[in-house]
Each structure stands twice: as structure tokens, then as C-alpha cells.
Design a protein that fits this description.
alpha/beta, three-stranded mixed sheet
Length: 298
């Protein structure tokens, strides 16, 4: 039996459906139960998957306290309840942003975390709390750091790109050369299932990402190909684009600095540590996963 928080979100709904296909029983801890510290369902489960959290705010309108209340305080209370319960596995969905907001090299688990955003700081505080508690015999914890998760029902920058390219608009950010890691929701669910079912995966921190990184230009090309078209890539001066994005930080433009960074920066994640524990390869390649997401939007 698995108990989940955040089961109604994009990731949670996909995970519930995926586990159900394999006949794995689940219970959801509701938002009301979380707010009232009603964690009794934990004793009914072998594994607890903690998905609930405050997502990264692209508009930067939330302060640190908003993030700490959900991403740190809630995780702390839930983990304390887990330690006192009969449940044996605690799976915390953190984020690569708990380590670094920007990268100039490939991210591994050995990186010394230095998040700058309230979101990343709150996730790192939760990670440190989990690691700092004495772990009773027979229990284990898994701190998973996914990069950008995508799949059917996905919202955010992926959808924005899709809508933009679907109208056959030229992509004006092609002058930015980058590589980004992505994570198919199917691969994410596969990893959770492996951790839940197997005993040889030890406690610790694990990056989760698809095996290959793609540039945003390659992503644009895949979207255009799904419409039977060739991508229209415009290489506009990057300094000009960055200036427009800064204006978008205060005015309601399609682009702001945060969104520009997500679309154009390098952010490559190494998943070697996790793959060493998996018996079989990840079920979906980067391109296959991206194509599934694209066609789900048609």
C-alpha cells in the first residue's frame, strides 16, 4: 500500500493512474488532512510519497514564508509522523532547484547546494531536515530531485511553447545555444514504482532526469514536425531579447527574465547514480517522451 500527498496535481494524477495499472493500492492524504495534521493513513502504508508542495512561482510574487509553510513545515510534520509510524519508506519529491538555479556544468548529487530562490531554499531546508533525523532500523528515505517534468496534462512553459509554435509563429530565441534536461512523467512514475517495490535501493539523494538533454531549438523543431512543418527559428540579438525580458518583469509581456531563463539557459542533470540501481533502462527516451507530450496537446 502507498500513501500519497498531492495526488490531485499533474504529477500525482499521473502517478495514481500509473500505479493502478500495476495493481498497486493507494491512499491519498487530502489537503484538509494535511492542514489538520491528520496523518493516520501513514500507518496503513508501506511507502509514503510526498508530492504536495508550493510550486515555483514564475511571477515571483510569493515570499519565503509562503514557501516555507508548505515545502518545509509540512514536510517536517509529515516526516516526523512517518518516523513514528509503521511505514517503512519516505519518498520526498524535492527539485534540482534545491541545488542550483543556474548551471554552467552538469549537475550531480555531489554538488554543494546553493539555491537563491525562496522555492529552492524551502526545498533544501526540507531535504536537510530529513537527512538530519535519526533513521530507525527498517526505515529508509529517498530525496528525489527531478528536473522539468512533462507529460499529458502538463502546464507551464511547455504549453506556452506548443501554443506559440502551433500558430506557425517564428521562434525568436533561436540565437540562444543551450542544453536542458527533461523528465517524462512516465519515467518519473517508473522510478517511483522501482523504489516502492525494491529493497536494494539505499536511502539518499537521487537526481531524476531522462538520459539525454535537448536544446530548446530541438524542442521547437519537434513541435513543428508534429504539425508537418519546418521550424521557423529566428536568431535575434540576445542582448535585445534580455532587455525586453527585463521589461516583462514589471509589465504583462509574454516573456520575463524568469521565463526567458527557463527557455534558454543550460541546465543538464546527471542521472547516473539512480540508473545504477535500476534493473532495466528508463522506459522512454527523451525524444519519445517529448513527442508523447506534444501529441497529447494536439
Amino acid at each position: 500500500m502507498i500513501v500519497l500527498t498531492g495526488a490531485s496535481g499533474f504529477v500525482g494524477q499521473n502517478l495514481v493512474n500509473y500505479l493502478s495499472e500495476f495493481g498497486i493500492s493507494q491512499l491519498a492524504i487530502t489537503r484538509q488532512e494535511l492542514e489538520s495534521n491528520d496523518f493516520n493513513k501513514i500507518n496503513s502504508a508501506d511507502s509514503l510519497v510526498h508530492l504536495a508542495g508550493k510550486a515555483h512561482d514564475l511571477k515571483s510574487t510569493s515570499n519565503l514564508d509562503d514557501y516555507l509553510k508548505v515545502n518545509f513545515e509540512l514536510t517536517k510534520r509529515l516526516y516526523d509522523a512517518f518516523l513514528k509510524s509503521s511505514c517503512t519508506k519516505f519518498i520526498f519529491i524535492s527539485s534540482v532547484k534545491a541545488v542550483a538555479d543556474h548551471l554552467d556544468t552538469v549537475l550531480t548529487e555531489e554538488f554543494v547546494p546553493n539555491p537563491k530562490t525562496p522555492y529552492g531554499v524551502s526545498k533544501l531546508m526540507a531535504e536537510k531536515y530529513i537527512q538530519g533525523q535519526a533513521l530507525p532500523e527498517g526505515k529508509s528515505y529517498y530525496i528525489l530531485r527531478p528536473c522539468m517534468i512533462h507529460g499529458p496534462g502538463n502546464k507551464g512553459n511547455f504549453n506556452l511553447l506548443y501554443k506559440f509554435i502551433s500558430k506557425d509563429f517564428p521562434y525568436p530565441l533561436a540565437a540562444f545555444n543551450n542544453k536542458r534536461s527533461f523528465l517524462s512523467i512516465e519515467n518519473f512514475c517508473f522510478v517511483i514504482k522501482n523504489i516502492v517495490e525494491r529493497t536494494e535501493i539505499g536511502s539518499g539523494i537521487y537526481n531524476i532526469a531522462d538520459n539525454e538533454a535537448l536544446s530548446t531549438n530541438e524542442l521547437i523543431e519537434l513541435i513543428a514536425q508534429s504539425f508537418g512543418r519546418k521550424a521557423r527559428l529566428w536568431k535575434i540579438n540576445t542582448k535585445l531579447i534580455k532587455s525586453i525580458a527585463r521589461i516583462g518583469n514589471t509589465l504583462p509581456l509574454l516573456i520575463n527574465t524568469e521565463r526567458l531563463n527557463k527557455l534558454t539557459e543550460n541546465y543538464t542533470v546527471d542521472n547516473t547514480k539512480l540508473r545504477e540501481f535500476l534493473i532495466t533502462p528508463l522506459p522512454v527516451s527523451t525524444v519519445e517522451g517529448i513527442k508523447k507530450t506534444i501529441f497529447s496537446l494536439h
